[in-house]
Amino acid sequence: MICITNDGSSTIFLPDFNEYYHSKYGAVSESAHVFIKNGFYFWKKENPNKKYCNIFEVGFGTGLNAFLTYNESKLILDTKLMYTSVEPYPLKLSEIHQLNYSKKLDDNDKIFNFIHDSKWNSPVQLSKNFTLTKNITTLQNFNIEMNQDIIYFDPFCYRVQPEMWSKKIINQIVNSMSKYSVFVTFSSMNILFDLLKDLKLNVEKIPGPNKKKKMIRAIKN
């Protein structure tokens, strides 16, 4: 079911799980705050001279995070981005075509549609400095390449997908992270905070998007 969030951008609601793909207070504003501002740009500020950036996303979903990151990559031409994502249950194209992200961001539909029309399980070059690889698989069955610079941790919440917030999964992700890499998620859950702390990451709760008070960001030292 397609819904319009409070910032005017669309998301998808799953009645069987009583779950939204994004915050009902704003899909684009949530993704931009959590993953772009506090993930991508935070990493870039901390690593100004690094010319390559490996981004690993848990939960491709609507493709919004990938689309926003691609748009920002056009402003940072000195850094090549390799964006890898896993998604076990891709959305139907009929649902994708009802989303209004291109209109909301004053962009045409060409790139957003190309992101979704492109092949799965193989790299696709969207521009000279942005390569996308979408993988149809669960994270449990995927070998994450080492030396990830940024982790976009964006599965469904603990209530819907408790297995994604387990020590086994988080440990797998942390092991793939390079030194000074950044882990960001919309969640501020204490279970996750403690797991990341136990795995020796520098963890903090920072202001969240919209009406959400906190979110988690962690750095691997």
How would you explain this protein's 3D organization?
The chain has 221 residues and is α/β, with parallel strands linked by helices. Helix content is 30%, strand content 29%. The chain has a single domain (29-220), classed as Vaccinia Virus protein VP39 (Rossmann fold, 3-Layer(aba) Sandwich). The chain has an 8-stranded mixed sheet, sandwiched between helices. It has a 3-stranded antiparallel sheet with strand order 1-2-3, with no helix packed on it. Helix 1 (27-46) crosses helix 2. The relative contact order is 0.17. The mean pLDDT is 94.
Mean pLDDT: 94
Q: Which second-level CATH architecture applies?
A: 3-Layer(aba) Sandwich
Note the total helix count: 7
Tally of strands: 11
Q: State the name of the first-level CATH class.
A: Alpha Beta
> Which strand order does the major sheet show?
6-7-5-4-8-9-11-10
β content, as a range?
25-35%
Task: Give the fraction of residues assigned to helices.
Answer: 25-40%
Q: Using the coordinates shown, work out and report the CATH topology.
A: Rossmann fold
Low-confidence runs of at least 5 consecutive residues: none
Structural classification: alpha/beta
Helix-strand pattern, N to C?
EEEHEHEHHHEEEHEHEE
- Total number of domains: 1
Give me the CATH superfamily.
Vaccinia Virus protein VP39
Radius of gyration: 16 Å
Largest β sheet strand count, sense and barrel closure? 8 strands, mixed
List keywords for this structure.
globular; eight-stranded mixed sheet; single chain; Rossmann fold; three-stranded antiparallel sheet; alpha/beta; 7 helices; 221 residues
